[in-house]
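Morning!

This is the sequence you dropped in the shared folder:
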Amino acid sequence: MLVTRLNRENNTTTWILKDINIAMNFFGGGEVRISPRGSLYVGKITMQRKGGTPDPTKLQFKIKPCQLFEMRE
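The structure's back. Tokens below.
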């Protein structure tokens, strides 16, 4: 997984490259919980019912890719 980040203060870009298995273990590791609004959290991954479509059986998986920069080597 390749993630880039732009620092607007000094106009520099940093990047990180991680094996997809390591990245998914990082995001998926942690407790499973349900938010008061009905979202399901598995570690750092948020799962929500996809809105805007007539088919309510689809899920949306959300991550915050820049969290990979916080990962310890």
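Headline: The chain has one domain: 2-70.

More detail when I'm at my desk.
O.
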